[in-house]
Amino acid sequence: MTQPRKVILFFPKVQPRKHHHEMPLSILALVPELKKRGYSVLLIDERLDRHAFSTLERSLPGAICVGISSMTGYQIQGGIAASKFVRERTEIPIVWGGWHVSLVPEESVRSPYVDMVVRGQGEITFAELVRAIEEKKDLNQIPGITFREGEKKVIHNKDRPIISLNDLEPVPYDMVDINRYRPHFSYLSSIGCPMACGFCADAVVYKRKWLSMDPYRLADEIATLSKKIGWRIKSIYFIDNNFFVNSERVKIFCEEILKKGIRITWEALGHPHQLARFDDGYYELLRKSGCYRILTGAESGSQTILDYIGKKATVEDTLLFTKKCKQNKIIPVLSLMCGFPKSPMEDLKETILFINDVKRVNRGAKIKLFFFTPYPGSQLYQEAIDSGFQPPNTLEGWSRYTLAVRNMPYLDPEYEQMAVWFTNKYFPRLTGTKFISWEEVLSAFNKTKRPFFIKSFSRVGTRLFKRGSS
Ligand code: B12
Ligand code: SF4
What we know:
Layout: E1 5-11, H1 25-28, H2 31-36, E2 39-45, H3 52-59, E3 63-69, H4 75-89, E4 94-97, H5 99-103, H6 105-109, E5 116-118, H7 123-134, E6 145-149, E7 153-156, E8 184-187, E9 190-192, H8 202-206, E10 210-212, H9 215-226, E11 235-238, H10 247-260, E12 265-270, H11 272-275, H12 280-288, E13 291-299, H13 303-308, H14 315-327, E14 331-338, H15 344-361, E15 366-371, H16 379-386, H17 395-399, H18 413-426, H19 438-447, H20 451-469
Parallel strand pairs: 1-2, 1-3, 3-4, 4-5, 8-11, 11-12, 12-13, 13-14, 14-15
Antiparallel strand pairs: 5-6, 6-7, 9-10
The chain binds cobalamin and iron/sulfur cluster (SF4).
């Protein structure tokens, strides 16, 4: 009997502890093109397989290569551990893919644990690479990869153009136990984004291209998935970075869902400027088709900051969108950030006031607040470096670069303490209906019993208040 030609794909943990998990679409999406070429594929999701490393060890014999997925931060730790584990046992090539290594491919491939990097969209590139590894062919001809030749020489092949999702086969969801992932069913209906917000990695990896799935195919696939017996799918989460770019496409999708009588709810992400311009009829169609939540990157309550980060949206856009959601019984979810290099204190104050404005317009709005973290390649990353930020320059260094670790020299340490406390401790405790005044924030900060904060209490409180009020 001939040996199956086997490829292993490893999805490391994305967070140290978590109760629910997103589907590992990053590696699932790679399967159809591999299967088409006759390979068998083993998927290992470290988050769910308590014996992930034993599974890996058992499957190594005869494998053509091991693929590892990477998002900047914690996920790299598991990726390094898996790569070390493989390297200690075999000489099988280790291929990394995903957002992190796509952003810093040359630096990543200098790591002893990375032999090759697949940049950006991976389906075709990885399938071609596996074939070349198997047949010991020249890697120079494969667009979209970066690899090491010998100990030191790094070769960066030309980019591969993005492929439309229409030209790829459906994601083989039945390869994983759907019911073990979070209640939402993740689905990618478009790739890339035409915008170029200064903090976002998308424009770096996909170069402002946006390619989407045909709405008729999309509705057909959702119909098929929703009828799968035993999958208990209640809600679809469109993980596209910008689902609504082509509003006509979304309209056709909604009409098809209604025509087919599919009873499912769904949520997606959009850009505030565009969302503010849809009329009531459009929102009504969205809701009727099952849309119950729309997420948007509102980013800041300060127009100065929105202009500075290149958001191409106004504060009023977000308020108008929030209002339209209320009128049409859709929940708006706003993602905000603080801690940009420019005027962070004024920004935080205006953002807090803006949160009140949002609640006045729509008390049901959900708001998330994050700390700005510079990612390689983006415009603000360079600005952060110019302002003294020293990024990691190894895979190990990037594995410790999480949202919880702050080391931003462009921020006043006292501001940083206060903003970290606000985002992590105070803000999450606020209920959806509570209004927050700037003075209340400062007073709560000053009352905190932590010695760390008490130490700087009087100085920080007074300085912040003075600056914030001026
Ligand atoms: C779901 C998701 C998450 C999930 C985790 C992912 C999971 N599957 O469990 C959660 C919610 C935990 C999460 C967290 C974060 N996320 Co996130 N997330 C996403 C999201 C919305 C979808 C990812 C996905 O499944 N895409 C679909 C698949 C098919 O695409 P893909 O992952 O890009 O995979 C393709 C290629 O990258 C490549 N590929 C990927 N892996 C591999 C492996 C191999 C071997 C090969 C060959 C190829 C390959 O081929 C795939 C097919 O083309 C993306 C946005 C997006 N639309 O992609 C952001 C995104 C990946 N996240 C991002 C960010 C910034 C974060 C956070 C830092 C932010 C935050 N505020 O929480 C945290 C970090 C987590 C941490 N603790 O460190 C950024 C990426 C930044 C970066 N440098 O890595 C993205 C791109 C959003 C954005 N536009 O900025 N995220
Ligand atoms: S709209 Fe969203 S995905 Fe597009 S560039 Fe801005 S932050 Fe990134």
